[in-house]
């Protein structure tokens, strides 16, 4: 007897959505008496009338509304389980070209990438790490199957953008920096300081520029590096202060090589996003990798 309970619930949901026995029978490729039998069996099982019948249409009773909501969830979970079990017996192959901005590519992506590679060793993985602008361009040109970027993606007309996770940005300085003696820095304390910045086009640089502009902060001088690692090393060497992701500096903070300069106001946060070209044809390998990433992000 093939999935009798699931089949009965599917018949019930279809009747409820079509408000008609004969239309449901046509959609399910069943006879109308067969549909009626499924509904009677359900009503006998629950000891309640689930549908109010009339010659023109049927309508859910209060009990039927409850079962309809639960049946939708049961059917969705059933399909998810079938998909996961099927994938256990399939060999996922192919290749995935991934682009990631520096913070994500260097500090977040390696772990889910390693877990995915262990689960699906037949998939060839290629990773390009660049700034947000470069990754977005690669996805638009279909050179990359998907991208993970920091901050806002201004023009989304040709892209599918999915929120991935939140990132906290903090001001950091060397332990010897004059600001290190402050418990909390006021905007005036950050005025006319030497800043170490990422290059234009990076999500970190865009966030830093907005941070400075919103607080009307001027810089005495600035130094620009094209990687967060370079910015971090420059700050540790005493070149200036910087605004970086907590992901980037967590080890240095723990070791006392850098100090967080707390600022007034709400925590400084930005979004990490997954981006795909809307015209891209999905593959099983890419879909499985996206599923892995979203599990980690959530």
Automatic annotation (TrEMBL):
Belongs to the LysR transcriptional regulatory family. Residues 9-61 form the HTH lysR-type domain. It comes from the Bacteria. It comes from Paenibacillus vini. The keyword Transcription applies. Keywords: DNA-binding, Transcription, Transcription regulation. This is LysR family transcriptional regulator. The keyword DNA repair does not apply. InterPro entries: LysR_HTH_N (IPR000847), LysR_subst-bd (IPR005119), WH-like_DNA-bd_sf (IPR036388), WH_DNA-bd_sf (IPR036390). It holds the Pfam family HTH_1.
């Amino acid at each position: 007897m093939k999935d009798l309970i699931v089949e009965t619930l599917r018949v019930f949901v279809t009747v409820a959505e079509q408000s008609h026995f004969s239309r449901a029978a046509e959609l399910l490729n069943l006879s109308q008496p067969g549909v009626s039998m499924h509904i009677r069996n359900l009503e006998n099982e629950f000891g309640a009338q689930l549908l109010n019948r009339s010659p023109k249409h049927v309508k859910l009773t209060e009990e039927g509304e409850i079962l309809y909501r639960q049946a939708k969830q049961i059917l969705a979970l059933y399909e998810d389980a079938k998909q996961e079990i099927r994938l256990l017996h399939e060999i996922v192959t192919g290749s995935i070209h991934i682009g990631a901005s520096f913070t994500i590519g260097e500090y977040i992506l390696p772990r889910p990438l390693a877990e995915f590679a262990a689960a699906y060793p037949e998939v060839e993985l290629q990773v390009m790490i660049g700034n947000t602008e470069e990754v977005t361009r690669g996805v638009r040109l279909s050179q990359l199957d998907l991208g993970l970027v920091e901050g806002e993606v201004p023009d989304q007309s040709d892209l599918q953008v999915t929120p991935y996770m939140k990132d906290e940005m903090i001001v950091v300085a060397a332990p010897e920096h004059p600001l290190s003696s402050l418990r909390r820095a006021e905007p005036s304390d950050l005025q006319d300081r030497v800043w170490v910045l990422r290059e234009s086009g990076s999500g970190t640089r865009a966030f830093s520029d907005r941070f400075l502009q919103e607080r009307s902060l001027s810089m005495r001088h600035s130094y620009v590096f094209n990687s967060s690692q370079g910015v971090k090393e420059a700050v540790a060497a005493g070149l200036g202060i910087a605004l970086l992701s907590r992901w980037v500096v967590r080890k240095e903070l723990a070791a006392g090589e850098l100090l967080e300069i707390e600022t007034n106001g709400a925590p400084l946060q930005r979004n990490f996003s997954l981006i795909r070209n809307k015209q891209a044809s999905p593959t099983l390998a890419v879909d499985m990798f996206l599923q892995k990433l979203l599990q980690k992000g959530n």
